[in-house]
Design brief:
Oligomer: single chain
Distance between the termini: 8 Å
Strand content: 15-25%
Number of strands: 9
Largest sheet: 7 strands, parallel
Strand order of the largest sheet: 4-2-6-1-7-8-9
CATH architecture: 3-Layer(aba) Sandwich
Helix content: 25-40%
Order of helices and strands: EHEEHEEHEHEHEHEH
Shape: globular
Structural class: alpha/beta
Length: 210
């Protein structure tokens, strides 16, 4: 499919944490020759999401925009910020300059994850005014989480590009999300092997359809 069909800016969010947002972000970053930005990173001891995307895509640092906040502890940003004695300010977030045709922005956790006393990730999405690609698990438990996430986005009038299902193929869940969620399934992905630049690009070519 033509990469020109994708909007210039895409916010990758998820129905939960550990849902596959970073892999989907890497797929889009590689396939669209995009820049990548994760505004808030919570957890620095292991490879960060930004480091993974750069390694997997093989892109230079010119395409990788540094995080606005880097927090030590792998937990909700508001809690990690408290541990680091930092207060995350909404005013610190503006879309960064980028030299590519596309920008992929990855959220932290799900939509209703707080990052200070008053503000959640969905508020950041609303401020940035870019459409969302929602990543959901394919297996048991996904329907409730996915429908609640779609409802939250629609209540804010945030455009939703569609849903990416991550995990083993599950026809019933896919059909239910399409029907009851009134949403397109952009892709269904499972294991990517090898998880490198060629694997990311092949996955996009085979499975992603906007």
């Amino acid at each position: 499919m033509s990469t020109s069909q994708w909007p210039s800016e895409i916010f990758v969010s998820g129905t939960d944490t550990g849902i596959g947002k970073t892999v989907v972000s890497a797929i889009l970053t590689k396939a669209l020759s995009a820049s990548y930005w994760k505004p808030i990173q919570a957890g620095l001891e292991e490879e960060t999401d930004t480091e993974f995307v750069q390694r997997a895509t093989g892109f230079s640092k010119q395409c990788i925009i540094p995080e606005r906040y880097r927090l030590e502890t792998p937990m909700s940003p508001h809690g990690a910020a408290q541990i680091d004695d930092i207060y995350i300010e909404m005013s610190d977030f503006e879309l960064p300059d980028y030299e590519t045709d596309h920008l992929v922005v990855e959220g932290a956790g799900g939509l209703l994850v707080p990052f200070n006393d008053d503000v959640m990730i969905i508020d950041l999405i609303e401020k940035l005014q870019i459409p969302v690609l929602l990543v959901a698990r394919s297996t048991l438990g996904t329907l409730n989480h996915t429908f609640l996430s779609l409802e939250a986005l629609r209540n804010r009038n945030i455009p939703v590009l569609g849903v990416v299902l991550n995990g083993p193929e599950h026809k019933s869940n896919r059909e239910a999300i399409q029907h009851y969620g009134d949403i397109d399934i952009i892709a269904e992905i499972d294991t990517i092997d090898p998880l490198n630049a060629s694997g990311l690009e092949e996955t996009f070519d085979l499975h992603f359809n906007l």
